[in-house]
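Hey L., structure's done. Input below.
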Amino acid sequence: MTFSNILIKWYLQNKRDMPWRNTTNPYYIWLSEIILQQTRVEQGTAYYLKFVEIFPTVYDLASAKESEVLKLWQGLGYYSRARNLHFSANYIVNELKGQFPSTYNDILKLKGVGDYTASAIASICYDEPTAVVDGNVYRVLSRFFGIDTPINSTKGIKYFKELAQELIDVDNAATHNQAIMEFGARMCKPQNPDCEICPLNDKCIALQQKKIKSLPVKEKKIKIRKRFFNYLVLVSSDEKTILNLREGKGIWQGLYEFPLVESEKTIDKDELREDELFKKIVGNTAFELDLYNNQEKIHKLSHQHLYTRFWILKVAENELTTINWKQINSFPVPILIHNFVEELKRTIIFSIFDKK
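Output:
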């Protein structure tokens, strides 16, 4: 029995029931694949169901405002995925007349779609025999064939893609691709794989050579950057605050946040009061400033860690505070801000949330 046949047989007996496995609609498959990038299935499923409910067609997604898409995406992280999703929906509607591209090469032209996603959609929806290579596939192939070439190197990416393409069942590409991904997720797991009951264990080189824990190999990770965020959480006498839209190409583009003072290290109240943004907001009016969290909240992103403090700044009514606190949940914000606001709702300070 071939490598592919073994995987497919296992898959048909053990596959999980997922909502996107009951359709070949390319719009739904595309949604699921974008959502599941950098996201666990358990978390991504709820978001997928919300998206197909609120945006049942690509036309619905294209006609939505970007802020609406970002709000629905809130909590998933890697927000560029949502922006690219919305951008590509408009491209499909306006440039392709609502027809989803039907080949690997054309799907690859969609913004935010790479080799893996294009291969998955092309094979699942159109039976094009293009092999998927994701983290699960890297793990299965590197262990089974005993390959120690780093999977995140240029050489490794090219080699594993070619190998996966050689192994694919060209007459059953959709099932083969889903089988090898599911196998990596549930059998050939990163930690404590089920080698004793694995249907490939008699030919697995990593198992024979006791290299399961050392494969696959990754090149050294990028150094983590530390950033120090100080949010000015304004509370005016008329129960309003300030939210600013993040622009540019940095993190959280298109999301809203409180006025931000970024520093090179942890700063105290006196240092914060000397910042130009703080002075601009306060002006010559009286204010009360208190640190909400003595211990910094550490928010970890892929290549940076944010050490965050929230400063409660009570001020008089002024023209800068334009957002009513009762409306704050309608804005798309980073999960760091969302969690903070939810925590504030449970404090005596913010009894304004309970006012009718």
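The mean pLDDT is 92. Residues 132 and 281 are 52 Å apart (CA to CA).

-- N.
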